[in-house]
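Researcher: Here's my situation. A collaborator sent me these components and asked whether they could plausibly form a single complex. I don't have experimental data yet, so a predicted model of the whole assembly would be a useful starting point for our discussion.
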Amino acid sequence: MKKDIDFIEQADAYIRGNMNEEERRLFEDYCKKNPADASKYREHVQLLEKLNEYQNRIDFRSKLEHIQSKLEIPKITKSSDSNGIIKLWKNYGFNALIAASVALIIVFSTLWMSGFYSDVKDNSSKYSALKRDMNRIVNNVNAQNKVISNISSNVKPAAPSTFGGTGFALTSNGYLATNYHVINGADSIYVQNTKGVSFKTEVVYIDPTYDIAILEIVDPNFKEPASVPYTFKKAESDLGQDVYTIGFPREEAVYGRGYLSSNTGFGGDTIAYQVSIPVNPGNSGGPVLDDSGNVIGIINGKQKEADGAAFAIKTSYLLKSIEAISKDALNRKMQINKSNSLKGLSRTAQIKKIQDFVYIVKVY
Amino acid sequence: MVNNIKSQVLSDQEVIDGIANGSTGELEYLYASYFPMVLQLVTKNNGDEDDAKDIFQEAVIVLYDRINSGDFVLSSKLKTFLYSVCRRLWLKRLNKNDRMSLNVQEQEELVAVENDLLEYQEKEEQFLLMEQSLHLLGEPCQTIISDFYLRNLSMQEICEKFGYTNADNAKTQKYKCLQRLKKLFFG
């Protein structure tokens, strides 16, 4: 019987393989002969096995901890949330992209080859042009409504746009008539004749009720032209009479011809005629003349929804305004022309004579 | 190397062989492939990410033990095995914590894993006992025992490390420690 401590010592050596052949055989023999020590040996081995397993488990756990710490959880969470669709996309996404681009190319090239795009271009230009027209109509109606409301309510109207209108000479010494709405809210007003020369003017009289304004050319460069060729007809003109106007809807003088279509203006307004003359913004303030060269009115607006419905302030109201001007307010004598030099002339000859007395009114 | 393994598709047998050989790559593959499934199972059933990690780690250990027991034959897909183990473990933990346990989805296939878990549990109990025993053993015994029996240091090295004047003292110390451990572990 060995001492316990020595037996364990030998058992460790045996397990570790630190014994030579001879020693091993001796140890095995000893165990066979001493069952008590043999069971001690088994117990020892069992303990060491458990110890080893325990250590292995600890090592393995730390290995797993390490792997876990490297896991990218957010990514995994995301893919586990919707892995069906993502899988599908991963597998077929590229194919789907190619299919989609092929489809797009085919669609657009077919459209292009069938001339779809040239049609589209035409349509769109037509469309935008139409839009511009619509805008203009709306603007015109708005402007006109403004004018109408000014006339009826006698309230100071809102400032008009900076573009101008038309004016015409009342006398040869520099007095002009135009619409009140043309010059309303102006800082300064210039008039330009058909030769392209501009003159500074000042307002000497306004009558918002009748939409009439009287201007005076104050420019020292202004030379008095020959006497005014047309006269002013105080009496009402007859329905159906041929009338014409000259105005500046653009930088050039534009002649417009038509007939007197009604003795009242917009909404039964008795101060104006309805004339059937094609007019545009810029015609405002232009004279309306009859065959024999009498000014019968001043163009001041139109109703765009109705065809050829322009309105002109009757000359009688212009003359009333002129009479109302205080003589003291004037620098020069305002002598309204009474002798008509247009009678019997052809329309073209009349226009030639009138042209020099019609001005563009430029409002700044 | 590791990335290669992760991006490959390994057969179940390849994974099992790799784990049997102590390879880390196959374990990483296991995590990459099957952890999301378990994460979903746990997080949808009153658990959080850490719970999922615990559960999955247990399941991998169950698998590891089964593989190392030598007679392991996979009777189902590896995925099914792991899912079944995790599900069982999680239900058990929910019951223990008295939490709701009715929401566990049954969308995955299941295999019977009760025996595997029993085996695992026995082992875990023994390990716990070993852990406690070693803890009670205290120092320097704990270190001497693990130096000699786990790290396979020689008595000479242990002598030097602990500053014993002669080998007999060290031998006696080691013997005493071992006897105490035996008593603690086997009761």
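Model: Some features of this prediction you could bring to your collaborator: The interface with chain A takes residues 24, 27-28, 31-32, 35-37, 39-40, 43, 49, 53, 56-57, 60-61, 64, 123, 126-127, 130-131, 134, 145-146, 148-150, 152, 171-172, 175, 178, 181-182, 185-186 of chain B (CB under 8 Å). Chain B is about 75% helix and 0% strand.
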